[in-house]
Amino acid sequence: MAAALKEVGLELRGTHHRGIDDARNIARLLPFIVGESEPETPD
Question: What is the domain partition of the chain in residue ranges?
Answer without folding.
Answer: 2-33
